[in-house]
């Protein structure tokens, strides 16, 4: 029997902390025009997708990220029919979005090889979502795609990689502005925002910038075992719907009517996740 | 200038995942009769205390753990005067407890060398708490100490290491029973409960056992950047006070009257931290 071995992430977004995983075997590795994709089988988290040396998703804990980036905005918006996903090559966000009665879910992923590798080696994540009749997969640069959309989407979910490789453009203020323009007048968008502990300066700047476009900019939190840095943040921006005004009773009713099956999300968590510790509130909103 | 280097934790509580930290230099190392203590200076978290190869606390994020294990029970109890801390050699819990008007805070730590090393190399954590006139430090086995106490404490905080070394006895049902007997009739206790993702079976058993002694057993959550495994749990057990009945307004009033200075804790977080994702609720309470 082969011996397990410890694998330390080869990259570190934060330069100060990395994840070490006990690995059973390497399954797949490919250098694409955009990045290096690797899939391994791990001792504690099932199959794990790495991109450029950083953990992107694992079979065991992917439900936390995918449910929270999807259901919070989908249950906030009164009637999300047209949804755009930027990135999301593993198919997890698409799977969750399609649990809602949306008319069209368009996914724009820059690297077809991510989709191919995940469909082949981690099909449990997309669960056939790529073949759904309401799904449309476009292989393109998300930045460029959004730039050409006006007043087109109820919801945009930015499920990007961290700002190291091709995803760098998605952390550019021009992109946020284009997201604003691509949304309909009741539109909502969500951005994965990384560690709320390690990236305080970046998140503050991101918040400030988005506030110049959107009247409502809010952070909500979860914790993901294989993402370093304590609370993991999502930024929700909204053109018209006030996320603080939507009550628990209304979200509970929608959740029940949709008969959503979730492993993480529930309407109580929806609201609890917007409550911030003092230090996060302070750095996001202090005047200095 | 010396080069930084990556240090992977040498032990793994969970056998599947470890923390890798960028380190500037090693500061202190000692093998005591109980365990190996190491202190290093890190690139992202200031000074870091390791015990038997596992991160225990860091200067940068210790406030999260220490505030949450202390202020939640202290603000739940109507009048906590006599507080017992088991473990807590770095002094962080004692520091937070002494922000409240307690009459006596007794800390029972098995290994004097932990206190000595932390006072010398990480004095920012205890902030002089060991010298406070209301603090009493006892070097003894916490299991044995609690066994000899009856109807003695308003609050017991179990700030133990993980169940690998000398702390193993603190994860024994006999200890929970002794905690019950050591508490006064309105008494409350809190146990650090590790990762709510990695230790599902252990936490379920722990909950079941405590329910046979305490009428109220609840989990509350935080996320700590240098503790692996997503949401970190604390278990709150209570003999008489119902944690669900204490309202936000009451806790807000107490918090304001005490004029508590906190970096993490606030009354909204107090209640939000008791809201559990579905999968945690399921494994803690399902019948099977």
Structural notes for this entry:
- The structure is a homodimer.
- By secondary structure, chain A is an alpha/beta fold.
- Chain A folds into two domains: about 5-60, Roll (Spermidine Synthase, Chain: A, domain 2); about 60-285, 3-Layer(aba) Sandwich (Rossmann fold), CATH 3.40.50.150.
- Helix content of chain A is about 30%, strand content about 30%.
- The first copy, chain A, is built from ten helices and twelve strands.
- In chain A, strand 9 (about 155-160), helix 6 (about 175-180) and strand 10 (about 185-195) form a beta-alpha-beta unit.
- In chain A, helix 7 (about 200-210) crosses helix 10.
- Chain A starts with a strand and ends with a helix.
- The model of chain A has no long low-confidence stretch (mean pLDDT about 95).
Topology:
The structure is a homodimer of 288-residue chains.
Chain A: E1 5-8, E2 17-31, E3 36-42, E4 47-51, E5 54-58, H1 62-76, E6 82-87, H2 92-97, E7 104-109, H3 112-121, H4 123-126, E8 135-139, H5 142-147, E9 153-159, H6 173-182, E10 183-195, H7 200-211, E11 216-222, E12 232-238, H8 248-258, H9 267-272, H10 278-285
Parallel strand pairs in A: 6-7, 6-9, 7-8, 9-10
Antiparallel strand pairs in A: 1-2, 2-3, 3-4, 4-5, 10-12, 11-12
Helix pairs in contact in A: 7-10
């Amino acid at each position: 029997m082969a011996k397990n071995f410890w694998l330390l992430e080869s990259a570190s977004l934060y330069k100060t902390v990395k994840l070490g995983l006990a690995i059973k075997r390497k399954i797949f590795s490919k250098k694409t025009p955009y990045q290096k994709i690797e899939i391994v089988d791990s001792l504690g988290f099932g199959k794990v997708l790495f991109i450029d040396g950083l953990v992107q998703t694992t079979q065991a804990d992917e439900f936390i990220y995918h449910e929270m980036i999807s259901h919070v905005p989908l249950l906030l918006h009164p009637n999300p029919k047209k949804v755009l996903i930027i990135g999301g090559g593993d198919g997890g966000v698409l799977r969750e979005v399609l649990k809602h009665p949306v008319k069209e879910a368009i996914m724009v992923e820059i690297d077809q090889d991510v989709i191919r590798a995940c469909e082949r080696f981690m099909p449990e994540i997309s669960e056939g979502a790529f073949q759904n009749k309401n799904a449309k997969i476009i292989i393109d640069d998300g930045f460029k795609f959004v730039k050409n959309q006006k007043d087109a989407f109820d919801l945009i979910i930015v499920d990007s990689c961290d700002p190291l490789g091709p995803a760098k453009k998605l952390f550019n203020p021009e992109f946020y502005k284009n997201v604003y323009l691509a949304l309909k007048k009741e539109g909502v968008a969500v951005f994965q925002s990384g560690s709320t502990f390690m990236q305080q300066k970046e998140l503050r700047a991101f918040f400030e910038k988005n506030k110049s476009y959107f009247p409502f900019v809010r952070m909500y939190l979860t914790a993901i075992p294989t993402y370093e840095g304590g609370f993991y943040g999502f930024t929700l921006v909204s053109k018209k719907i006030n996320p603080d005004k939507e009550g628990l009773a209304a979200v509970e009713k929608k959740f029940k009517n949709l008969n959503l099956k979730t492993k993480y999300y529930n309407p109580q968590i929806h609201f609890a996740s917007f409550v911030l510790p003092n230090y996060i509130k302070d750095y996001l909103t202090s005047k200095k």
